[in-house]
């Protein structure tokens, strides 16, 4: 794992208030090795499901518990504050982008069809440009968290969508158990 990846994990472990912001910047796929991906996924999963974050709980969600535990302890020793967690996450994202672009470059040198390689590079570039946008995984995680909150409060008749204006139009959100079909032109 890179130092930036350890810093991201350490920040998330010492201060769970930065987890949501970090999740907007990076995903598990941005980590360079499987143990980093596993730890990141475990932290995010524990935070979304239980809200309880510590190395023991997170290690239980990882495949290699001993290695994950040691890496998390090392990460927590490296990081003294989570104030720079977003900056660390941006470094992880940038490194990931370079690795992906280098992999496509290798394909080009090996003679893969240039059009396919250019499309891959375009996808990589658009991922960098859209860094501030929320994607499907982030919406899924946010929706799951909100749904859990509403399930915990049985008196609540509505499930918020995350779109305030839309929730107002619906009178507070979607009615639990209701069927909603939304449609629009592409790009709307």
What would you note in describing this structure?
The protein is mainly alpha-helical and 188 residues long. The protein is 63% helix and 2% strand. The protein is built from nine helices and two strands, in the order ααααααααβαβ. It has a two-stranded antiparallel sheet with strand order 1-2. Helix 1 (3-14) runs antiparallel to helix 6 and helix 6 (85-109) packs antiparallel against helix 7 (114-129). The N and C termini lie far apart (40 Å).
Low-confidence stretches: 129-133
Separation, N- and C-terminal Cα atoms: 40 Å
Total DSSP helices:
9
The order of strands across the largest sheet is: 1-2
Give the biggest sheet.
Answer: 2 strands, antiparallel
Order of H and E elements: HHHHHHHHEHE
Number of strands: 2
What is the global morphology? Answer: flat
The share of residues in extended strands comes to under 5%
- Helicity level, as a percent range? 55-70%
Mean pLDDT, as a whole number? 81
Report the radius of gyration as a whole number of Å.
Answer: 20 Å
The chain-level structural class is: mainly alpha
């Amino acid at each position: 794992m890179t130092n930036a990846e350890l810093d991201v994990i350490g920040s998330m472990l010492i201060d769970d208030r930065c987890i949501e912001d970090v999740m907007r910047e990076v995903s598990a796929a941005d980590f360079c090795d499987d143990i980093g991906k596993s730890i990141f996924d475990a932290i995010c999963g524990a935070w979304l499901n239980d809200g309880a974050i510590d190395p023991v709980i997170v290690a239980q969600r990882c495949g290699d518990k001993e290695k994950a535990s040691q890496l998390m302890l090392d990460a927590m020793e490296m990081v003294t504050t989570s104030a720079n967690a977003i900056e660390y996450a941006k470094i992880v994202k940038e490194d990931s982008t370079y690795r992906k672009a280098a992999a496509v470059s290798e394909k080009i040198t090996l003679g893969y069809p240039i059009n396919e390689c250019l499309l891959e590079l375009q996808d990589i570039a658009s991922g960098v440009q859209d860094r501030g946008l929320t994607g499907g995984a982030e919406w899924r995680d946010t929706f799951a968290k909100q749904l859990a909150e509403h399930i915990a409060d049985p008196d609540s008749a509505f499930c918020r969508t995350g779109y305030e204006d839309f929730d107002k139009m619906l009178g507070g959100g979607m009615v639990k158990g209701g069927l909603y079909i939304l449609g629009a032109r592409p790009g709307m």
